């Protein structure tokens, strides 16, 4: 039996619901990963400063999974750019910013696995589509944050 193409969107909406419900677990896991990584400057940051833009990024991911529209993509870019500026102001370097997103990817991967275990009836293409949508979102978000970060570096170098 072939999967119904509309069931992909249904699977994405259910994944968005799952990630929304697991938001605190994702945040806590991400913070643990960041704090355990000695190359990310988290010592001077409290949990609130560390999590800062994560709720907006997770909201953007949920909206992307539910709607996949240009306005969501534009908002995601704005929130990612804001995150790049935040991390620049907090003294992160480009490598730390990339590792931070790698840790977010790892925290989300755990919840993707939980989602798949709770929905064994999903077809392989639905699971793959959900994973590729999340990974594509993260790649685009990290790229936008890195571009904003690089713009700040370039501006600082030009001012010297």
Condensed summary:
The protein contains seven helices and no strands. By secondary structure, it is mainly alpha-helical.
Question: In terms of topology, how is this protein built?
Answer:
Layout: H1 5-21, H2 23-36, H3 47-51, H4 54-67, H5 70-89, H6 94-118, H7 124-159
Helix pairs in contact: 1-4, 1-7, 2-6, 4-5, 4-7, 5-7, 6-7
Notes on the protein architecture:
This protein is an all-alpha fold. 82% of the residues lie in helices and 0% in strands. It has 7 helices and no strands. It starts with a helix and ends with a helix.
Features of the shown structure:
160 residues; mainly alpha; 7 helices; 82% helix; globular
Helix/strand/pairing class, anyone?
Answer: mainly alpha
- If helices are DSSP runs of H or I spanning 4 or more residues, what is the number of helices? 7
Largest sheet: none
- How many distinct beta strands? 0
Strand content: under 5%
Radius of gyration: 17 Å
What percentage of residues falls in helices of 4 or more residues? over 70%
Distance between the termini: 64 Å
Low-confidence stretches: none
From the structure provided, what is the oligomeric state, counting identical versus distinct chains? single chain
Q: Order of helices and strands, N to C?
A: HHHHHHH
């Amino acid at each position: 039996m072939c999967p119904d193409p509309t069931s992909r969107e249904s699977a994405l909406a259910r994944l968005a619901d799952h990630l929304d419900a697991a938001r605190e677990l994702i945040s806590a896991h991400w913070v643990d990963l960041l704090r355990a990584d000695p190359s990310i400057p988290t010592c001077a940051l409290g949990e609130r400063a560390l999590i800062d833009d994560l709720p907006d990024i997770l909201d953007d991911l949920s909206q992307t999974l539910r709607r996949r529209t240009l306005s969501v993509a534009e908002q995601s870019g704005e929130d990612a750019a804001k995150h790049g500026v935040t991390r620049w102001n907090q003294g992160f370097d480009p490598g730390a910013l990339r590792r931070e997103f790698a840790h977010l990817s790892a925290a989300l991967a755990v919840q993707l696995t939980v989602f798949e275990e709770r929905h064994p009836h999903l077809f392989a293409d639905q699971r793959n589509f959900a994973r590729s949508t999340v990974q594509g979102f993260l790649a685009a978000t990290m790229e936008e944050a890195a571009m904003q970060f690089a713009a700040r570096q370039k501006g600082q170098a030009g001012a010297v």
